[in-house]
Write a structure and sequence with these properties.
single chain, about 375 residues, alpha/beta, 3-stranded antiparallel β-sheet, 11 helices, about 35% helix, binds pyridoxal-5'-phosphate
């Protein structure tokens, strides 16, 4: 087999066979129904409820608006405890709702929000917790639930990385009051751009579906100050096609993951997240922490880049170090997140990445 074409990027979107997608969207030229909860939208919503083992789900045009509107739906005020070790979207969704993020540090092994540090941050202003299943590592959901219950707080998960994962056979979105999934092109499962909110209380349907359509309830009633978060039919059609292949794609990712682990995990100073046997994983990302290895993260990044292989410093910097939030937070209060963000590299990970290329990447790291 020849060398995989360069450049090798950190990810590569999964796509269905072209003919399948073309066939599916053909009918849109007859119906002229392109968006606003059309047939594909309804079918995809149903199929995803089944796939994700949830009763209540609303599709969105992207994951970010899904999260922003999920938060808005709970009509919150005050402070929201969240993690600085995430993508910009999580914190921005909180701030854009007029809420104040309070950053909780992360666990040193799986990088999710550390529940042991959570309670000390709760004040009379705290209204919710927004944890992130970062890299598909499932948060300490039971501990978080216990604390949230005790203090009467909502829990809204950013599950952008956790599509299709289960814990003890339960869908990841069965935890908390709501969970957001992202179906962006770079994610395990994509609808080009897209997202969804799964929610516990059926009565929230009114709020969540209303918000994504300007708060319009019927011909003459606008009941909420909503926005436009609707997924269109081209996205939903892509979603229906991709859903048929997602298990196979995850199976291929697993082989890539296992190869990386096999090659690197016994090396001193190279660290992987622990594998929780209760969790069925989706292998969304391949985070590796270089701590105590003879080369640091920056050197490995440079050496791979020189070979046209582009890992990501994901997540660096931490959100509480962003320019737009400068002077507002104290990054020194979340030292574990700060340390991990300076040592982590997410290596190329996608279904069609060849094991030969994984070997090449490992050879460069180890040479
Ligand atoms: C991708 C992502 C989002 C945003 O989703 P989009 O679909 O890109 O809008 C939010 N949070 C996390 C952690 C993500 O990785």
């Amino acid at each position: 087999m020849g060398k995989e074409e360069r450049p090798i990027r950190v990810t590569r979107s999964s796509m269905p066979p072209y003919e399948e997608y073309a066939q599916m969207i053909k009918g849109l030229w007859d119906s002229h129904w392109l968006t606003n909860m059309g047939d594909f939208h309804q079918r995809l919503e149903q199929e995803l409820k089944d796939y994700l083992h949830v009763d209540n789900l609303a599709l969105f045009v992207n994951g970010h608006l899904a999260l922003e509107m999920a938060i808005q739906a709970f009509d919150l005020k005050g402070e929201v405890i969240t993690t600085p070790f995430t993508f910009a979207s999580t914190t921005h969704a909180i701030v854009r709702n007029g809420l104040t993020p309070v950053f909780c540090d992360i666990r040193p092994d799986d990088y999710t929000l550390d529940p042991e540090k959570l309670e000390a941050l709760i004040t009379e202003k705290t209204c919710a917790i927004v944890p992130v299943h970062v890299y598909g590592n499932i948060c300490q959901v039971e501990r978080i639930e216990e604390i949230a219950k005790k203090h009467g707080l909502k829990v809204i998960y950013d599950a952008a990385h956790a599509f299709g994962e289960t814990v003890h056979g339960k869908g990841v979105a069965s935890f908390g009051d709501a969970s957001m999934f992202s179906f962006h092109a770079t994610k395990v499962y994509n609808t080009i751009e897209g997202g969804a909110v799964a929610y516990r209380d059926k009565a929230m349907a009114h709020q969540i579906n209303g918000l994504k359509n300007f708060g319009i309830m019927d011909e003459e009633t606008v009941a909420l100050v909503g926005g436009n978060g609707k997924m269109n039919e081209f996205q939903a059609a892509m979603g229906l096609c991709n859903l048929k292949y997602v298990d196979r794609e995850i199976g291929k990712r697993k082989l890539v993951y296992e190869r990386y682990r096999e090659r690197l995990e016994t090396v001193e100073g190279i660290h992987f997240c622990p594998d929780d046997p209760a969790v069925v994983r989706n292998y969304a990302y391949m985070p590796v922490v270089f701590d105590g290895y003879r080369k640091d993260r920056e050197q490995i990044f440079a050496e791979l880049s020189a070979e046209e292989i582009y890992p990501r410093k994901y997540f660096y910097p931490c959100v509480n170090e962003y320019q737009c939030y400068r002077e507002q937070f104290h990054p020194e209060d979340t030292p574990v997140a700060g340390r991990i963000s300076r040592k982590v590299l997410t290596l190329p990970m996608y279904a069609d990445l060849s094991l030969e290329t994984v070997d090449e990447i490992c050879d460069i790291i180890l040479r």
